[in-house]
Amino acid sequence: MHPDFWHERWQANQIGFHQDEINPYLVRYWPGLATDTSGRVLVPLCGKSRDMIWLLDQGYSVLGVEISPIAVEAFFAEYNMTPTVRREAHCSRWAFDGLELLCGDFFALDRRDIGEVAAVYDRAALIALPPDMRPRYADQLASLLGKTTTGLLITLEYKQDEMNGPPFSVSDAEVEQLYGDRYTIERLCSSDVLEANQRFREQGVTRLTEQAFRLGDRKTAKPE
């Protein structure tokens, strides 16, 4: 998706992807990742997700990445936080206690922007991207993460011809294709969630499956 798409969505307050509640899969499965709370959690394409507050409450420091300054400003305002803001080469860095949000293009960042990260939480990043951008996203994510990073990935799967994304349909086969040569992948759950998602039903979606995956330690690179 072109950055203008997301800027326009936030300007028009068309943010149906935003969840008002803490994601239940995060609460259920994050403790099983065996991630030390001394590490930092990366949340790509974070919007103003409340999940970052939950992670902070568990003792983690959090690094979110979001392209829309409207979303970043709204996040800090909603939690009565007054961040320090510093302009950097690829983004602006908004910081408050154990939380930092990088406002800029995720694809323009490098390891110097991110620093050391112990885990990644992806609820809305991969499924926000069309098929042609997802391999690039997976490559960029791998370039930013350390070798011992673990993560929680949440996806949706439905018949793509029944509704235009985002969010887009991502199958478990595609998850394996994108990440299988970099991580061990464990599917934690697969749930029928159509009944609970009126917006999808109104668009004509007949089947909607939500899945959660654990991304484990990076595998040894395959020989070329």
Quickly give the structural class: alpha/beta
**What is the topology, as strand order, of the major beta sheet?**
3-4-5-2-1-6-7-9-8
Number of strands: 9
Range of strand content: 25-35%
Q: How much helical structure, as a percent, in the residues?
A: 25-40%
Q: Briefly, what CATH class?
A: Alpha Beta
**Tally of individual domains:** 1
Element string (H = helix, E = strand): HHEHEHEEEHEHEHEHE
Low-confidence stretches: 220-224
* Radius of gyration (Å): 17 Å
Topology-level CATH name: Rossmann fold
For the report, how would you describe the main beta sheet?
9 strands, mixed
Do you know the CATH architecture?
Answer: 3-Layer(aba) Sandwich
Mean pLDDT: 89
Q: Globular, elongated, flat, extended or rod-shaped: what is the shape?
A: globular
**N-to-C span:** 31 Å
Number of helices: 8
What tags apply to this protein structure?
single chain, 224 residues, alpha/beta, Rossmann fold, nine-stranded mixed beta sheet, 27% helix, globular
Please render the helix and strand layout as text.
Blueprint: H1 3-11, H2 24-29, E1 40-43, H3 51-57, E2 61-66, H4 69-78, E3 84-87, E4 92-96, E5 99-103, H5 111-114, E6 119-122, H6 134-144, E7 150-157, H7 172-179, E8 183-192, H8 198-202, E9 209-218
Parallel strand pairs: 1-2, 1-6, 2-5, 6-7
Antiparallel strand pairs: 3-4, 4-5, 7-9, 8-9
Please tell me about this protein's structure:
By secondary structure, the chain is an alpha/beta fold. The protein has one domain (3-218): Vaccinia Virus protein VP39 (Rossmann fold, 3-Layer(aba) Sandwich). It is built from eight helices and nine strands. It has helices spanning 3-11, 24-29, 51-57, 69-78, 111-114, 134-144, 172-179, 198-202; strands at residues 40-43, 61-66, 84-87, 92-96, 99-103, 119-122, 150-157, 183-192, 209-218. A nine-stranded mixed beta sheet has the order 3-4-5-2-1-6-7-9-8, with helices on both faces. The longest helix has 11 residues, at 134-144. Mean pLDDT is 89; it is low at 220-224.
